[in-house]
Please model this.
Amino acid sequence: MKFSEFKYERPDYEKIKVSFDSLIHELKVSNSCKNQLECINHINHIRNHLETMGTLAEIRHSINTKDRYYDEEQNYWDKYSPLYEELDFKFYKELIHSKFRKKLEEKLGRQFFTLAEFSLKSFSPNIIEDLQLENELSSKYTRLLASAKITFMGETRNLSELTPFMQSRDREMRKNASDSKYKFFADHEDEIDRIYDNLVKIRTKIARKLGFENFVKLGYIRMKRSDYNPQMVANFRKQVKKYLVPAASKLYERQRKRLGLSSLFYYDENFKFNTGNAIPKGGPEWIVKNAFKMYSELSPQTGEFFNFMLDKNLLDLVTKENKAGGGYCTYIPDYKTPFIFSNFNGTSGDVNVLTHETGHAFQSYLSRWIEIPECIFPTYESCEIHSMSMEFFTWPWMELFFSEDADKYRFAHLESAVEFIPYGVTVDEFQHYVYENPEASPKDRKTAWRNIEKKYLPHKNYTGCDFLERGCWWFQQSHIFNVPFYYIDYALAQICALQFWEKAAVDKNSAWKDYIKICKVGGTKSFLELEKAAVDKNSAWKDYIKICKVGGTKSFLELVKLANLKSPFEDGCISSIMKPINNWFNSIDDEKL
Ligand code: ZN
Model:
C-alpha cells in the first residue's frame, strides 16, 4: 500500500470512550494476569489506531496547509487531543496499580510503566487552568515571532527570510541583516520579558501545586528523565567546560584566520568559508537517487529500509506551495511505517535531512515490532542518538553528493557538532538558574545569561550590539519558552553520536584489515570460509542496529550501555572523545577548503 492509500477516518470520541472505559474497568477488576494483559493489548490497539488517525491528519495537513478537509480534521484533533489524553491518564492509573504489575513489567518492559508513572506525576485535575495559561503564553511567544515583518533591502521579510542575508559573503550585509533581526527583538523586549516572566511564574505555581519545591524536578519529569538528575547534568557541563570549550574556541580562531578577519564578530559566526558552503551538486531527484545508492551500500538493512520508504512514497521532501515549513520524521502505527517530511532548498541541509531524519525513520522502522505507542521512539536525548549517529555513519558516502567539496562538508559538519555542545549547555545552565530562582527579575536573568555565555562561549564578540551584550541572545531560542529543559538532550546525544563517529572510523580500518587477510589466504579457503573471514567486523554498526531495534523500550542510560558507549555523565567520557576529534581537525587544512 502506498501512503496515499492509507485510510483516514475521523474517530468517534463517544464510542471510543465507551469501549475504553469498559476495558479500563475490566483491567481494574480482573483477577488474572493473562486477562489483564489482553485488556492492555486491546487498549493499546485502540490507542495505536487513534495515533494513526491523528498522525495521518497532521502529515496531510502539513503537506498542503490549504487542503480544506484536513484543515478541518486538524481542528478536530486540536480540540479532542486533551480528551483522548484524559483517557490515557485513566488507563495509566489502573496500569501502574495493577496487582500483577511485576509480571506485567516482565511482559511489557519496565519503561512503559516508568513513562506512565511520570505522566501521572506531572498532572493533576487542579492544574488544568494553569496548564491552559501556560499553553496560551507559549503560543503568544510563537505568534509574536511568526508575526515579524522586517523591512530589509526594500522588502518585508520574516525572521527566517533574513537567514540567507546573515550568511552573505558581504560582511556589511551580514551585519545589517543581524542588526535588523535583533532590532525586532529589542523592539519587543518588554513584551518578551513579560511573557517569559509569566511562564516562569505559572510553571513554578504548577510545580508547587503538584508538591515540588520548584519547577526543576517537574521539568525533568516532563522530559521523562528517569535515570539522571540535575547534579549529573551539572557534572556533564563541567566536563564540557574543561575539555570541549577549548576545542570549540580553537575552531572559532581557525575560522577567523580562514576568513582573514582581525576579529570574529557575532554576525560572522555563521559564515564559515570565503568560498561559500558546500552545496549538493544536483537537484532533489538526483539527491534521492544517490541516497538510494548510499543506503544500499551502507548495509542490507538500510538498503531494504530505504527501498521500502521509496516504494510506499513515505518521503515528502521538496518544498512546494502551501506546504508547512521545517522537517520532521514521524511514525504511523497501523501501517507500521515511518514518514519523512522536509523542504529541500538546494543547501547542504537537504543532505542533512536525508541523513538525520532518516536516522529517526530507520530506528522506528526497526522498532515496528513494538505495540506500545509510547515505546516506538525513545525519549528525546535517546532519539537524537539515532539521527545524529546516522549523520556520521554516512560520512564515507558524502562524495556522492558534494564531489570535491565532500571534505568541506565533513569539516563544517563536525565543526558544528563540536561548536553546538557549549551552546547547548549554556541554554541548560540558564534554565536551571531561572527555575531555581523564580523570583529573579528579567534583568537578573539577562545578567545570568551573559555570565553563563562568557563561561561556555568565550569567543562571543558582541561589540556594537547593546541588545546582545545585555544578555538577550536567548530570546530567539524557542525551546526556552515552549519546552523547558529540552535542550541538553541534543548535547548528550551528540556526545554519543561522536563516539559512534570515532568507532566507525576505527571499524573502517578493521574492515580493511579483514580484506587484506582474505587477499593473503588466496585460494587456500572455500568461498564460505572466505566470506566468514571477511565478515564485516563493523561493531559500531552492529551496536547501532541493536539500539534501533529496542526503540523506546529502554531508558537513556540503558540504551547507552546497550550501545557499548560511555555515559556522557561519566568523568573521562568527553576528554576521551576529544582526542580523536582534535586529531581529525589537525589532519585537515581548512584554509584550502
Ligand atoms: Zn532529530
Notes: The two ends are 46 Å apart (CA to CA). Residues 531-537 have pLDDT under 50 and may be disordered.
